C-alpha cells in the first residue's frame, strides 16, 4: 500500500531557511490538508517535493514506498508516482497540451509500456469532458493564455491521466468560481482510493467542504504547528489563525 513520509524536511531559498523541519505521514486512502497564512512556506514545501532548482533541501527525507524522492531528479519523482499541481503552473510555448500530457504519461509508464495514440486520445477526450473543458484546449500550447481557472482544470486533467500514488495540490481552489470548484473537487474525489494519498494545500476552508480531509495540519513559519481532524479547518475558517498563534506563543 502507498506510504509517503516526510521527515525533518528543511529547505532554503537563496540561503534563507523557509522550511524548518516538516513531518507528515500519508497512507494510501488518506487525504491530508495543509492550511496556513500567506508566506508560511506551503508552496515552498510543494516546490521542494517536486525538486524545483530554486529550493535547496538542506535536511530531511521524503520517502514514497521506502524510496527517498529527495535523491531523485524531478522526472524520476514523477515516475515514482508523485504528482504536483503547482499554485502557478508554468506556460510552455511550442508544446501542445496533448503532446505534453502524452509524454508525461509515457514517462510515468516507462519504456516499452507506452500508451497507444488511440487509447490516449480516447482517455483525454473523456477526462476533458468530465472536467467540462473545451476540446480545443488539447491543441493549445501548454497553459499559454489559459485563464487562472483553465490552468487549474488543466492540472486536474493531468492528475486524472497520470494515475499518481501521491497527489499534492497547491491552492487548486484559487481563481475558481464555485461551479469550477465543484468540478475540480469531483475530479479529485473520483481519484480517491486505497492506493492513493493526497496532500491538499489551501489557504481557505471552502475547498475542504468539497474535498473532505481526514487530517488537517496548520503550517506557520515553516513548521507544522498543529494537527487535527476536519473540525480544525472549520475553526480556522470561523476564527482565523490568531488563536493558534496565541496558543503557541508565536509572535510575528
Ligand atoms: P505560502 O505558499 O505559504 O504563501 P511560500 O512558500 O510561497 O508561502 O513562501 C514562503 C516564504 O519564502 C515567503 O517569505 C516568501 O517570500 C519566500 N519565497 C518563496 N518563494 C521565493 C522565491 N522564489 N524567491 C525568494 N523568496 C521566496
Ligand atoms: Mg501564498
Ligand atoms: Mg503558496
Automatic annotation (TrEMBL):
Q: ABC transporter domain spans which residues?
A: 4-246
Keywords linked to the UniProt accession: ATP-binding, Nucleotide-binding
**Alphabetized SMART domains for the sequence:** AAA
The record's listing under SUPFAM superfamilies reads: P-loop containing nucleoside triphosphate hydrolases
Q: Which Gene3D superfamilies match?
A: P-loop containing nucleotide triphosphate hydrolases
Q: Kindly list the GO molecular function terms attached to this UniProt entry.
A: ATP binding; ATP hydrolysis activity
Q: Which family does it belong to?
A: Belongs to the ABC transporter superfamily. Ycf16 family.
What is the protein name given in its UniProt record? Fe-S cluster assembly ATP-binding protein
Name the species this protein comes from: Paenibacillus phyllosphaerae
